[in-house]
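TL;DR need structure tokens for one chain.
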Amino acid sequence: MTGPTHFPGESKVIQETDTSRSERSNEGMNAFVVTLVYLLCAAAVVWKHPVADRVTMCFYVAATTLAVFFAWLAQPGRNVTLRLWPLGISLMISFFVLGFRESGLDDEKYMTHFYHIRAFGMTEFFRFSTMEPGYIFLSAMIGKTGCEYFTAQLVFTLIPLLVFYLGFVRLRSMISLPMAVLLLYSTFYFLILAVALVRMFIAISLVFYAMIYLWEMKPLKYAAMILVAATFHYSAAIFLPLVFFGLNKNTMLFHWKKVCAALLIVLPLLVFLIPATLIPSMGERYEVYEDAEVRFSAFSLFSKSAVFIAAAGLLNSVPKEFKNAYLLGTILLFFAIVSYLFSGGILGRCIFYGNLGFFFCFPLLCRHGSTAVQRLCVGIGIILFAFSFLEVTQWSLEFHQDILFPYRNIFFTTGMH
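>> reply
TL;DR here they are.
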């Protein structure tokens, strides 16, 4: 008699090995295709611009690519833990380009604020401006060291970037790090480079980190982080009611649609109530919100709506352990639509918070989508969105041309304009 061909369980081991080998093959093919699409998109946006701007465009694309590449090197895998050193290099690249900029649209205003705070003190400046106390306090502390405004600019840049990257580290098991960094560049980074929304960028980063606490069911830490964010931009306080999501892990799963419906009712009311009640007591700086006009862009409205529909449609593809985080991102994407529809007045700045939903949805699907094809399609979609969004809202926007082209660093300038 002949013995068994295989040892008990051997066929199962062989099958698992074949499956693992197939998955690695699919991941390798996906990485190749995604890289090819990325390079084609990068070349296309550079070629689209006038010859005089191409040196600057090459610099912007190279900086973005390097930050994304090192985030990819940091990405933990099956048998690989998170590598902090390449993620640190990605952070330093981002910090150098943004922090050492020569000027953004609002940098002169913030420079004036800084020296006024240093000259008149925190209390007097707050009484005069009613500006956010967290920003005033931080400016005053930097001013007390005797440093000039440029040091404050470096601090104001490092804080939000560091908070975002620390958030990515906390989400490392859930998201694709390179896709998260690419979305950071497309949704916020170049906007800040052009406009220098110093207080807003810090508040946005703190709200992002607070959302991680909300997903982790830590409502007290969430509420505390939102309150800190509101000391840098009052608009962050609008997210305080979401704390009830952190009280029960099933609340998000069963009531997210009701929250979206409530946003359609509550946000329009805020447009009328806040200018009528709070703004008159907040000083001349905020009077502009009372009569602000609503401006619509077909591209912005279409892109926000399409992204939300895609996120909602892919909900069933999300692993159960990450579903609450994904639903939180979906709510934020819907918040972006509603706040955009009422983007005049007090909600004008709230639009930016909605873009935080990207980080909880699509980098997650790119990492944990149900099939290799789905992960590939999501990755390609992120790249196409990132470059088209940057091209339309930043790089080709007439209002930003003189600021972004050429890029001005304190050490060098790219090309001529």
